[in-house]
Amino acid sequence: MSSHKSELAATESVLYDHYAAFEAFVKVPPDSSLVPPSPRQAKSRERLHRMPRVPFVELSVDVYDELQRRQAIVAANEAGVKPTVPDALAPREGFHPKRNTTREHLAVLQSSRFRDLVLDVFFEVARRLSQTQAENGAARKTNPNVASPAGPTGPVPKMMSPVTAPAQRQATTANGSTGHSSSNSLSSNGGNNSLGRPLPKTLQSSTVVPMKSTMVERSDDSGDDESVRSVLTSARSTQPASLPQSGSNVTAQKPILHQRGISQDTSQAQNVSPPIPTPTQRSPQHSPQSHAPFSTSSNSSHDRSQAQSDRHATELTTQFEWLQDRHAALQDESTNLKNELLELKAALAQKDDQVRFLKEALENDKRTATEAASSVEEELFRTRAANKKMNAEIQVLETEFEKLRARSTVENDAVHNSEYQQLQQNYDDLRADHEILKIKLQDQHEITEQVRSEALKFIGEMKAVSELETSNRDRTERLSSQVRTLKAENNNLREKLALGHTRDTLSTPDRKELAIRPSHVPASSPFISDNGVISLSDFARFQASIDALVRASADANEVNGRSYFFEMVRSVATCTKTILADADAFEQPDEPTTATRLRSRVSIASNNVVVAAKNHVRSGGLSPLSVLDASVTGLVGSVVDLVKAAKLKEAVSII
C-alpha cells in the first residue's frame, strides 16, 4: 500500500513539472476555458480523458521530452550555435518498440500541430491534477489526520478544459453548497431532544424559558426535555389547522432532514416562533383549579398536570418536527433553484461567448471576402486593360499580315510553276522509294512466316524427341549400368587406338619411353618444338575424337547410335577445351592479339560443331551430313592454325 502511494505521489510530481513546462510553452490566456474548442480538439481531448493513468503519464513524458528537444534547438539557433541535440528522440531500452517509434514520429509534426497536441495534454494534466486535489481534500475532510500532499509548485490552478467545463462547474457548485451547509450544521448543532434529534443552538438559546413548576423534583437530565417542551409550547400558536395530530403518522411521512446554517435557522425561528406565552396561555383548557397555587402535598393533581404537560409536549414536538421538515424541504428547493440559476447563468455566459466568437469569425470572414473582392476587381481591371492593349496590337498585326499576304501573292505567282514541278518530282521519287520499301517489307513478312513455320516445326520435333525420351526413360535407367561399362571400355579402346596411331610414326622404335604423337605428323615436323605449349598427346586425342565423330555421324539418326554420337561430340568438346587450356600459355610479344583471336576462333568453331551435331540429330536425317562435316572442318582448321602458331611439345609417358 505504501509503495502504491509513493508511486502515485511520484507520478503527481512528474505531472506538476509537465504542467509548468506546458503552461509556459502554450501561454494559455485566462479566459481560454470560455472559448469552445474545435471538433477535432474536442475529439482529441475526449480520447485523452478516457485514457488510463499509466498510458497518459507515458504520453505526457514523451511530449515533455519532445518539447525539451525543440526548445533546445530554438535556444541554440537564437544563440547562433549549431544544435547538438538529435533530429528526433532517441529510442530507449526500457521502452516498448512501438513507443520508441511514436517518440521518433513526434519530431515530424509541424509546429502548429505539435502546439495543439501540447495544449490538449496541458488541459488533461490540469484536469487530472484538479481531480486528484479534490479527492485528497475529500479524504482530509473524512479523516483530518491525513496530510495534504501538496505539489512542488503549490496548488493546481483552477484551469478547466473546455470539454469538461460544464460538468466540473456543476459538480463544484453542488459540492460547494453541500460543504457550506455541512459546516454550518456542524457549528450550529447543540444537544439532543427527547427523541434523539439535534436541536439548533439559535432556537434553543433564543426561545428556552425554564418552568419552575417542572424543574422541582427532577434530575439534571430532564432540563433539556423541559427546554424542548417550552419551545414547542411557544410554537403551538403557529400550528395551522391542517397539521397532523398523530406522532406516528408524522414520523412515517417525514422526509430526510438536511442540515442548515445558523443564519437560516435564525431567520426561520424568527418567522415561526411567536413571543413566549405565559403559563396561562400555554394551558387555556385547564380548569380554574389549575390556576391556584401549586400544592406540593397534592400528588394526584401534580400527576394529572404532568401527564397533560407531557401530552401537550408530544403534540408540539410532532408539530415542530413537521415545521422543521417543511423548512428543510423549502431550503433544499431554494438551494436547487439557486444552483439551477447559476447553471443557467453559466450556460448563458457560454452561449454569449459562443455568439461573440461566431460574430468575430463572421466579421473576419466578411473582411477577408471584402479584401478578396477588392483584389479580384483590381485584377479584373488590369486584365481588361491588358486585353484592350492586346486587341490593339492584334489589329496592327492583322494589317501588316494583309500587306504581306498581298505581296506574297504576287511573288508566289512567279515561282509557283517551278515549285510545283520540283514538288512533283519529289513526290515521284518518294513514291518509287515507297514501292521498293513495300516490296522489301513483303519479303520480310514472308521470311518471318517461314521462320515461324520452321520454329513451330522445330518445337514439334522437340516435343516428339521429349516424348521419345520419356518413353525410353525406364529402359535407359535399366541399361545405365551397362552404358557406363561400355563407356569405360570405349574410352580404353580410344586410348589404345590413339596409341596405335602414334606407334607407326615413332622415329626411334627401340626406345624404352614411348612418346605419343599424332598420326601423319613426322618426328621432324617443324610444328614440334621444345618451346611448344600444346601437348602432343592432347592433339592426338583431338584427332582421334574427330575421326570417331565423323564415323559416328553416319549412325547418328539410329536409336542405338544417337547416344554414342553425342558422346563423341562431348569428347571433341573436351579435347578442344584441353587444347585451349594448353594454349593459354601462348603469347606473342610482337602481336599480342593474335593468340587471343586464334583461341576465340577455336572456341567459336567448337560451339558451331556442337550446334551442328544437335541440328543433325533433331532433323531426323533430313539435314545433309556435309553440314556437320563443314563445321568439323572449320574446327579442325582453327585448331591447326592455333597449333601452327603455338607449336607442339612432346609428352613422354612410360609404357
TrEMBL record:
Coiled coil location: 320-440
InterPro entries, sorted: GIT_SHD (IPR013724), Spa2/Sph1 (IPR039892), VBS_C3G9 (IPR056439)
Compositional bias per record (Low complexity), positions renumbered to this chain: 175-196
Domain of life: Eukaryota
Chain residue ranges for the region called Disordered: 132-313
Biased composition range(s): Polar residues: 230-252, 261-300
Biased composition (Basic and acidic residues): 301-313
Entry keyword Nucleus: no
Keywords: Coiled coil
Domain GIT Spa2 homology (SHD): 44-74, 102-132
GO molecular function, one term: MAP-kinase scaffold activity
Protein name: GIT Spa2 homology (SHD) domain-containing protein
Organism: Lipomyces tetrasporus
